[in-house]
Design brief:
This is Large ribosomal subunit protein uL1. This protein is an alpha/beta fold. The protein contains 8 helices and 9 strands.
Length: 231
Amino acid sequence: MAKLTKKQKTLAELDAEKLYNVEEALSTLRQYASKKFDETVEVAMNLGVDPRHADQMVRGMVSLPSGTGKDVKVAVFARGDNADKALAAGADKVGAEDLMEDMQNGNLDYDRVIATPDMMGVVGRLGKVLGPKGLMPNPKLGTVTPNVEQAVKDAKAGQVEFRVEKQGIIHSGIGKLSFKDEDLLKNFKALTDAVVKAKPAGAKGKYVRKVTLTSSMGPGLKLDLAEVEGA
């Protein structure tokens, strides 16, 4: 049997059933952090929903007040003045039919795709390409908008999308381990508040069932549900 590394031994000693508050969890994650790169801090929320039913879908956007620590790549479908405004706001790629063809050829290295309403005839042809990646512009999420300038700025400043997966879990990064505790706490509260407020009409029984905080290479630490207001 292979010997456990020092880190694996220490991780094995963690009490799997312990409930942490957010500050304790962050402190513990930092103890096991990689020295080689700045790990992302991630939240997993297990919800009492079945997203196969439309009235139990949980999805939305939230602005993380302290940003994500990540460079967000944004593509915008727009023409004329709107295209100029999107570029000025920091969009990485702006176009119309040319951008559609580029994406059809497999160039999809974007974190957010935004479109003006008049471009949806072009964007609609990309449903099978953008849909599976969760990149299809959507008016409910503010990614189909006449104000592309603001949408680009929001995306670049730390606005993230959350969406429940088939198993009823939402995963989202809330920053980097190098962030100060207070900044990660602000982001944690913004995300969890947004998910709680997005409780769908069809959700029955307990809505937030489990919340876990982890980092890219770290252990998953269960949080006390009292840390999530309204849970």
